[in-house]
Amino acid sequence: MATATELFDSYKPTADVKGSRDVRRFYVVTDTLEDNPLLVSGVPNYYDVHPRLPQAKVDSKTIETKIGPASNDGTAMQYIVAVNYSNDQSYRITNKPLTREISYKAWSMSFSKREISIPYLLGETITLVGSEGATVTKFVWFRHELKADDVWNINVSRRVNVNSWTFADTKRIMDQRGKFHYLDGLTNGNNATTLAKFMGADPNQLEADRWEVTYSWLIDPGNPSPDLSGLPIEMQPQWYPHPRPPFYAYIVIPQTDMLTAFVDVEPTYHLTDIDQAGGLALPGNPLQ
Description:
Layout: E1 3-9, E2 22-32, E3 57-69, E4 76-86, E5 105-129, E6 135-162, H1 167-176, E7 180-182, E8 195-207, E9 210-219, E10 237-238, E11 248-253, E12 262-267, H2 276-280
Antiparallel strand pairs: 1-2, 2-4, 3-4, 5-6, 5-10, 6-9, 7-8, 8-9, 11-12
């Protein structure tokens, strides 16, 4: 169990000529290895007011000393933690930028070009000559492809800040990779239209109690139907005559009688791959 006991308070009722008042309070913190000693209950939080100097608020916290193990099995450690107060943020080297505040969230977007092969079929009557000179006339389909190189995927990122990061958070990211989320619907995808594939997250520790996490999704916008109007009508082309929906792939469906054939599309995901609840549970709530 994590505990914090105050050791010393440097409270002084005086100020310098500029009116700056600085106070430091020190704590002995016993912390389990999975926690952050700066966040243990009993250690003041950022912007808390000093109990005897209401003009001064917490503007930084630091681990001054790592004392050593607090238990025989090594599952807890003791630290000296300094909590720094001032009335002008003088304990910060620079003021904490807005981008590091816990409430900060930001979207970003980029595009990546891709090439898609669009199959189509051409029917043709051919004559086969047997070993004894007999001929057989058959109607067969030949597969051809068009290259659509003006298809652009949309890469969407959301940056959030969190107070801590543990392996449990990493596990949640691992479990969600490859799942699909609705970026414009907050409750089970209701009234949402933009389906996106979750690609993962990049956590980056900025301070002892601040992690920047960038989440990434991929949006497939689909593509229009190919234009085969230039082919001669006697070539009898068969193709998928509709736009390809997002996250669908082209397939060719053979027919046993060889007289008919189809080009169709099918989804590249199952309905069970859509996990809006899992997306809403990601650390830092990037979908909210």
